[in-house]
Design a protein that fits this description.
two-stranded antiparallel ribbon, globular, alpha+beta, single chain, 314 residues, 10 strands
């Protein structure tokens, strides 16, 4: 009985060999409900808190040292990837599944941009739209060209030890930097790992074996990647380290204390999906693990020209 249950479960998660109408419409129905719920939730829980306006554009290139743009690239890539895999599960022909996955990724991300466009605080960002498009195109282009993902996007993050500083206003009011961090990035572990741009790195991880000619592939294991990462630090404001309190007083963090910088990394990595295993549960685990960059030694070069070696970086 247990073996039969396991067999049915394996069959359920195995992509259909031919078009499965029931799976296709079940997937579309689930996606439609999820999309509608997400849009309604965002409009009521988030956007309703802020003043609305007529549709307008907003140039936010350079804000947060473009860490949010790296996030848009990463998110659109994985939305497209997972949507494509979902349509393959329904038995849709491969090329159609890729196009459908790209449409889903574009729709989800573009909807947020349009909602931003009606918010007085933000606006429709052409920069965000461009990086959303690039993320979807990176996945789709590789599938159409190679039939596999030789270049992966990955994520890593660590908790940041923010300095214990207090910023003073000319009227004597003092504003602890820790309070600013809590307001911007939150206080819980999940919030800090996902929202604190100062500790986030987005990686482009390329598979060495896949790009070598056939006679040289044996020199490197098929799971070995080399990754280039992008991050930033010392950011406590969007374009500059200054902010206002509820009374409208502006606080400015002296640049000689903590100047925002861009960071570029070089490190080895692992493509876990290239590790051979017959266990489907382990394959699934490896596919999830592949979202994250493997902790490893890394070489860092920042925008001030400083070179630093990290024995262990995540």
């Amino acid at each position: 009985m247990e073996a039969q249950s396991q067999g049915r479960l394996n069959q359920l998660f195995t992509p259909a060999d031919t078009f499965n109408k029931a799976r296709f419409w079940a997937l579309n129905g689930t996606a439609a409900v999820g999309y509608s719920g997400a849009v309604y939730g965002l409009s009521q829980i988030w956007y309703a808190q802020f003043e609305q306006s007529s549709f307008h554009f907003f140039n936010d290139m350079g804000e947060w040292k473009d860490m949010d743009k790296a996030g848009h690239l990463f998110t659109a890539y994985f939305e497209t990837k997972w949507a494509t895999q979902a349509y393959r599960w329904t038995g849709v022909e491969n090329k159609k599944a890729i196009w459908l996955g790209g449409m889903v990724g574009t729709l989800f991300q573009s909807t947020i941009e349009v909602m931003d466009g009606f918010s007085a605080k933000w606006g429709f960002s052409l920069g965000d739209f461009a990086f959303n498009t690039a993320g979807s195109a990176l996945y789709m282009g590789q599938e159409f060209t190679w039939g596999e993902q030789r270049i992966l996007l990955k994520y890593s993050a660590h908790l940041v030890d923010h300095p214990d500083l207090t910023v003073a206003h000319s009227d004597g009011t003092r504003y602890p930097l820790r309070q600013r961090v809590d307001e911007l990035y939150g206080t819980s572990f999940p919030e800090l790992i996902l929202k604190d741009y100062n500790g986030v790195t987005v990686w482009v991880s390329g598979n060495i074996h896949a790009f070598l000619p056939e006679d040289k592939k044996g020199r490197f294991p098929p799971w070995l990647n080399v990754a280039v990462g992008y991050g930033a630090e010392n950011m406590y404001g969007g374009f500059a380290n200054e902010w206002e309190d509820e009374a409208g007083r502006t606080f400015i963090l002296p640049s000689n204390d903590l100047e925002p910088v861009r960071q570029f990394y070089l490190a080895p990595d692992i493509d876990f999906t290239k590790i051979k295993t017959r266990h489907k549960s382990l394959k699934f685990f490896f596919s999830l693990l592949n979202v994250l960059k493997m902790p490893s030694p890394a070489l860092e070069l920042n925008s001030k020209g400083k070179l630093k070696f990290h024995p262990f970086y995540f």
